[in-house]
């Protein structure tokens, strides 16, 4: 039951993006690879995190955890996996595909992470499943939107300068997201609420923006 609870918000996020990709659906094989790359990302993040902890012992403060050991490592690895998945792939043939694949990779990672946390003998349970369904999984999806959006700008505006933003934008959002949650003080909950609203606003706006940029939009409109 806990595995199903850990998987449900991930499936909901994937389905939402699949519906939003309404002008030219991505091949099932590529979508599967996106989730699979996200699962691989989780394994690499775990291995890299263990290596860095062993080589560079440190105290786990909220700042260090948020900005380095979680957001820093996770977004860097996700960026690399997403780049190798789509940058030269012929299926990356409209701007919204950047967001679609960015979210599929991010939610693949979130799926693995969620199952680990929710089924943990000490940290897991139904309360953890609910908390992560409301906060962690949507957070990873929204970070994936930011990463994919700047990947799309990098490719379709032919400006490689957007690629650094494909890492730094989700990294900063992720770091602040975690930091505000880890502080667990009323004022930081206020900051978190503002950040959450801005992340959703940015995400929904950019999905709509790239939908409207689709080269397949006119063709689909004529057929319908």
Automatic annotation (TrEMBL):
UniProt keyword annotation of Hydrolase present: yes
Transmembrane segments annotated in the record for this chain: 30-52, 64-87, 99-120, 132-151
InterPro entries: Peptidase_PrsW_arch/bac, PrsW
Topology in membrane: Multi-pass membrane protein
Molecular-function annotations in GO: peptidase activity
Alphabetical GO biological process terms: proteolysis
Entry keyword set: Cell membrane, Hydrolase, Membrane, Protease, Transmembrane, Transmembrane helix
GO cellular component: plasma membrane
Pfam families named in the record: PrsW-protease (PF13367)
Annotated compartments: Cell membrane
Signal peptide: none
Coarse class of the protein's main subcellular location: membrane
Family to which this protein belongs: Belongs to the protease PrsW family.
Protein name: Protease PrsW
């Amino acid at each position: 039951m806990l595995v199903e609870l850990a998987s449900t918000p991930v499936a909901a996020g994937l389905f939402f993006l699949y519906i939003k990709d309404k002008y030219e659906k991505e091949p099932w094989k590529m979508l599967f690879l996106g989730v699979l790359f996200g699962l691989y990302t989780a394994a690499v993040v775990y291995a890299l995190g263990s290596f860095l902890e062993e080589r560079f012992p440190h105290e786990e403060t909220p700042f260090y955890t948020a900005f380095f050991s979680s957001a820093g490592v996770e977004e860097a690895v996700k960026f690399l996996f997403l780049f190798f998945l789509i940058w030269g792939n012929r299926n990356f043939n409209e701007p919204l595909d950047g967001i679609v694949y960015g979210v599929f990779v991010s939610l693949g990672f979130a799926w693995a992470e969620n199952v680990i946390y929710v089924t943990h003998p000490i940290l897991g349970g139904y309360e953890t499943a609910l908390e992560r369904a409301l906060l962690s999984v949507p957070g990873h999806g929204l970070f994936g939107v930011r990463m994919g959006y700047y990947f799309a700008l990098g490719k379709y505006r032919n400006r490689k300068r957007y690629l650094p933003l494909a890492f730094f934008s989700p990294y900063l959002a992720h770091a602040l997201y975690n930091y505000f949650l880890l502080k667990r003080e009323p004022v930081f909950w206020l900051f978190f609420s503002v950040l959450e609203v801005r992340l959703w606003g940015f995400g929904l706006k950019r999905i709509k923006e790239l939908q409207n940029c689709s080269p397949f939009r006119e063709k689909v409109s004529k057929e319908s």
